[in-house]
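Field notebook, page 291. I keep forgetting to write these up properly, so this time I am using the form the group agreed on. The chain and the ligand, nicotinamide-adenine-dinucleotide, are recorded exactly as supplied. Prediction of the bound pose follows.
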Amino acid sequence: MNIGFIGLGNMGGPMATNLAKGGHNVTGFDTAGVTIEGVSNASSAAEAATDQDVVITMLPNGKILRAVADQVVPAMKAGAVLLDCSTVDVESARDVATQAAAAGLLALDAPVSGGIGGATAGTLTFMVGGDDAGFKIASELFDIMGQKAVHCGPSGNGQAAKICNNMILGATMIVTCEAFALADKLGLDRQAMFDVVSTSSGYSWSMNAYCPAPGIGPQSPADNEYQPGFAAELMLKDLRLAQQAAVAADADTPLGQAAAELYAQFVEQEDGLGQDFSAMLPRLAARGHKG
Ligand code: NAD
């Protein structure tokens, strides 16, 4: 396929590399002037999008996605697929899809999980919103860039799935860290707590696969001085998107809200910026009951 790829950052760069290695003809554009081996360079987003079968965007946020969509939608040929893999607010995803459909394009929102490691290894999970025709065309590309693509329904539903998942993840990580910090103060050994909880009803991905306590459970960022991994500021971004959606949809999400507030404090007023999101454990362990 002929593919335009806009946003060649930490995630987009390796994704574009994998598509080129997979035999596709990829033309890239990034405002930072990034160049990628095996990917031709365009001088603008519109140029990267012209005459392509699929245009992929991997951008920081919804505002930038909307600005890029204004440039690429008029340049794309009818019937082509606009595939946004960024994590953005549900409203921007739905508005861009409407704009693309009005121009005779197929639009998909397909945020990912798996991080930079998954983007490099080609093992991302895609959560996809949009119609069947677009999903069928993009499936071949999902297979190269990832290990799983779930079609979640119409436009915006990929973003909805992503923020719901990460709201669970953020809240679960916090309470897992709280439990370790409480266990410390009760004289309960961390290893013993892990052995019980990881095989009891308190088990979770945060405990079992990404244990926030160093030296316990599987290898995780805790064993590497909390270098990300999944950075606390990216968790904050997703928790804020979840709260934005909750307000817009009038949904009651008190724990999601508390998680967003705690990560905001950690990242913006304390030393959380640049640390893994599981560094919530040393933060909590260093405090007393009143914070
Ligand atoms: P990044 O900042 O490394 O990359 C974004 C790129 O977009 C940058 O290279 C930037 O120069 C480029 N860009 C910005 N404005 C542009 C424009 N108008 N036109 C063209 N290029 C432009 O970010 P990233 O880590 O690659 O993340 C990209 C998206 O993926 C984000 O929405 C993020 O939330 C999501 N995501 C990231 C991770 C992760 O672990 N990094 C995991 C899952 C999802």
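OBSERVATIONS:
- The pocket of nicotinamide-adenine-dinucleotide is lined by residues 6-12, 29-32, 34, 45, 58-60, 64, 67-68, 86-87, 112, 115-116, 234, 237 (CB under 6 Å).
- The mean pLDDT is 97.
FOLLOW-UP: compare against the apo run.
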